[in-house]
Amino acid sequence: MNFTETAWKVFNQSIEDYHVSDDVNTLINNPFEKDTLERILYAKNWIDTVQWHLEDIIRDENIDPAEALHLKRTIDASNQKRTDLVEFIDSWFLTKFENITPKPEAKINTETIAWAVDRLSILALKVYHMSLEAHRDSASEEHRANCKAKLDVLLTQHEDLSVSINQLLTDIENGDVKIKVYKQMKMYNDESLNPILYQKEQQK
User: Which residue, among 104, 124, 152, has the nearest Cα to 15 in the 3D structure?
Assistant: First the structure.
């Protein structure tokens, strides 16, 4: 089983486990051993899955404004955790490939391995939920057909993205691509960088 096959299997296990209770307040129960890549991937997708449903809830037009604000803050915190974990995955791969010497002509990829994995995790959620819509008995035949067509596109994206990620890993191992990562430098959660936050602090 190659890397993306493993990741896809782990992501779908996380999604299935979440939907046993289908509750954004359910605590993660990671089934994988400590310090394994599978455990990290499961944790990554669990964050994505919970956030997917938080995003659904906050779009309720009848939601109480106070509850919406609380959810927005929760989503912001989730986004930060998601970014932190992506960067941790990149660090994991940096360690894995630390003894690889890139060739002088090695290229730099437009995105890191972990951010490509992030897209794969979100894609697993899209496939899961689009499949539900494509087979939902209460929906119209037209709705199911439209969702089936979209599902086919998503499954093609899964194939293409998997090939691309595996090829990137091979290119790094062969020294054809230089592994290079950058921190995301998120500013809106940082009290020293967000003007709204640091101006309030200065006014105290």
Answer: 124
158 burial (CB, 10 Å; 0-12 / 13-18 / 19+) is middle
Q: How far is CA 90 from the centre of its chain?
A: 13
Q: Report whether 89 contacts 113 (CB < 8 A).
A: yes
Strand positions, DSSP E, 45-173 = 107-108
Contact between 157 and 87 (Cβ < 8 Å): no
Nearest C-alpha neighbor of 125 from the set 11, 202, 4: 11
Q: What is the DSSP letter of 128?
A: H
Tokens matching residue 27: 């605590």
Is residue 77 within 8 A of residue 54, CB to CB? The reply is no
Model confidence over 14-57: pLDDT tens digits? Answer: 999 999 999 999 999 999 999 999 999 999 999 999 999 999 99
